[in-house]
Amino acid sequence: MEQNSPICTLQEITKRHGSSTVLGPLSLVLRRGEIFGIRGANGAGKSTLLKLIAGIAKADSGSIQMPAEIQKAIGYVPQDIALYEGLSGRHNLEFWAGIYGLRGAQKKLRIDWLLQEVGLSDKADVRVQSYSGGMRRRLNLAAALLVTPRLLLLDEPTVGADVPSVEVMLSIMERMRKQGVTVVFISHRDDELERVSDRILTLEKGKIVALHKRGEAR
User: Fold this and answer.
1) Beta-bridge mates of residue 127
2) Helix and strand tally (H, E) in the chain?
3) DSSP letters along 107-157, please?
4) Which of 1, 15, 179, 202 could form a disulfide with 210 if both were Cys (CB 3.0 to 4.6 A apart)?
5) What is the signed CA dihedral for 31, 34, 40, 42, rounded to 10 degrees?
């Protein structure tokens, strides 16, 4: 699959809660090897869009087309941190690695590498309850990377994180892009979006109000 080739096509999708339409109708194409930023006020439909792409939620109408090899390799980081506070960082990753089917030497190598990538090797055996907010965000990202994703979906991964943790996460996104991974990144921080995103989508009340390339005027 070539760089910039379509890996996910959304056609006229809508999502409703009761009688209210919370998203759409919306059409969008995600491309291989891009960081796709999403912004908008609370309730604009950002998280709903991410859940539809991830397959966690189902659209009420429209279609989402994605090759099978992409569907099998989606990493998803929810806004709510999905970690067990009573376990160490390493044991959290071992738990998720088991869910994803990693075993034996492969599992250990992947976990050791990811702990190094997110700067937590020295805290690997410390319980998560003593981690800072930024450390938890980094470990949450590491858990999503266990699957070796081809599509990485991040729902405000930097919220509450300190500056060094934000730097680590943005750098990982940029490295993933170089490897041909598509990263979809929700943030309220325009500076973060403008720094790393190739394209930025602005949602308002469930509809696209702007879609521009980095550096272009909105």
Assistant:
1) 88
2) 7, 9
3) HHHHHHHHHHHTT-GGGTTSBGGGS-HHHHHHHHHHHHHTT--SEEEEEST
4) 202
5) 90
Q: How far apart are CA 113 and CA 188, in angstroms?
A: 30
Structure tokens at 58: 């189902």
- What residues contact residue 66 under an 8 Å CB cut-off, 6+ apart? 7, 8, 9, 151
Q: Is the confidence at residue 218, as pLDDT, over 70?
A: no
Peptide bond into 25 cis (omega under 30): yes
Within 8 A by CB and 6+ apart from 195, the residues are: 170
